[in-house]
Amino acid sequence: MASNAQLGKIILLIAIAVFFYYFFWVAILPFMILDEGNPILSLFPPLKYAFIVPTVFGVICLGGIAVFSFYHIWSITAQSKRT
């Protein structure tokens, strides 16, 4: 099993790789003049998903944080009413 430092380095490398992939997909690829058959285009989904996917993940994350917060606030208020 990896130590915490090694695991942190692996997670950091994955996060950096995902960031650069997304940055290239959104900020550089639309401005490149490429033919339809170019193999670079096969590495990326259509550009419309570049904004839909992060929006969906953001809504899911914010919803999860809201549910977590409401659950704990509700449990604290329920405990204070019992005592």
Automatic annotation (TrEMBL):
First-listed, main subcellular location of the protein, grouped into a coarse class: endoplasmic reticulum
Stretch forming the signal peptide: none
UniProt membrane topology term: Multi-pass membrane protein
Molecular-function annotations in GO: enzyme regulator activity
Record protein name field: Dolichol phosphate-mannose biosynthesis regulatory protein
UniProt keyword terms in alphabetical order: Endoplasmic reticulum, Membrane, Transmembrane, Transmembrane helix
Membrane-traversing stretches: 12-34, 49-74
Subunit structure: Component of the dolichol-phosphate mannose (DPM) synthase complex composed of DPM1, DPM2 and DPM3; in the complex interacts directly with DPM3. Component of the glycosylphosphatidylinositol-N-acetylglucosaminyltransferase (GPI-GnT) complex composed at least by PIGA, PIGC, PIGH, PIGP, PIGQ, PIGY and DPM2. Interacts with PIGA, PIGC and PIGQ.
Domain of life: Eukaryota
This protein's GO CC annotations: dolichol-phosphate-mannose synthase complex; endoplasmic reticulum membrane
Subcellular locations according to the entry: Endoplasmic reticulum membrane
